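Appendix B. One record, verbatim.
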Amino acid sequence: MHLSKVKIGLEIHAQLNTNSKLFCGCKTKSATPNTATCEVCLGMPGSKPVLNKKALDFAVMLSLALNCKVAKASRFDRKTYFYPDLPKNYQITQYHSPIAEDGHVFVQSKKIKIRRIQLEEDPGSITYPQHIDISNYALVDYNRSGYPLCEIVTDPDFSSSKEVKQFLKLIVSIVKHLKVYTSDRSFRVDTNVSIGRNPRVEIKNVGSIKDVVSAIEYEVFRQKQEIENGQRIKQETRRFNGSATVSMRGKETEEEYGYIIDPDLPVIVISDAQLKKIVKAMPELPSQRMQRMMQQYKINKHQAIAIVSEKELADFYEKVAKDTDAQLAASWISTQLLKVLNYNNLFFSETDLDVQHFVPFLNLIRKSKISDRAADLLLRELVLKPQHPGTLADKLKLLTLTDAKLLELTVSVLKKHKKQTEQYKRGDSKIIAFLIGQVIKESKGRADAKKVKQEIVKYLA
């Protein structure tokens, strides 16, 4: 049975890097549950919220970075629902008039539309002593209640988990370059998945890019199976348990939330002068960094795009480039290093690889002490267990052979492959590639192809 196109939309909740909450002075850094609260974030009668200016500035910066139109005037609404982690029984968010709308970014050559960006407060957090499915009770921590969130809502422009992964990596890189978000802060994604004209299914509160990708892949598979089996897709909210999506409840409609304008908060007015001031204060964005790196280090666009895909990787590259050949570094980081990371399902920030490991590694290559193939094998080990590359290469017998050993090995291979050797002597120059390959194979990757070719040509002259 032919299945229609997969459509995926995202709602990304990035916690902003402020010292205090969105509407009160309570700190956003507290480890002990229920100690960073006040009458405002607990929703006590008579308490009045006051907007955090730094959070507003951060939201505007992020909106500009995502090519959105920042509203001259926006306002807050009350989203009413009843849940233990919401002490007021409503969340202060933006529904009718968000901070920004109508933006876009490109994932490779595909345009992804940003429908809206809005400021809102985070609810508290609920934990279960064992597991949500088997615990007899839940614990609520209201420290998180009122943390400032920026919600980024996309159109359903994605058709695969791969596109979503690339987009989320770009968003994380942007917010980290802007310094409006840090890796130890909250980053949660709600994912809407539908196939053809079937109802959309929302997967709530997925906390990492890896889990978002896994949740989408499972949900697409599940919905396709349902459709092929003649079942009707239900519009519902599901959660991801690490391996599968599990039904939580029927999907609420917008009307059920009973949005009303929050009477305690005034309209947010952003003047042209204020907007210019925010633009001037914005740090270098990934796209700007990419252009600068191309000019400064003389690297190509493909390499620059790959390197700035993760802020920590871009920071790492610039440190490495100061101490060794910048173009060689770009070549290895943008290809081989990223291949190793992708194969192991790792982000660079999840490794302990440092300049002290990578610069000596590149120096081994630069000084021809290791072949490219052997360097590839060495890098795989370095990413997982960073240590001095020279010591590790010696231990793994990856260092380039001495001239005497290389000659001995070359002669041995030529004698073993007499037929191909005679072909070369009779003028078949193409056969030399086979002979080079055999020497490299016998050396277990330690022989350098250029040197092998030189030895063969010299020996058979």
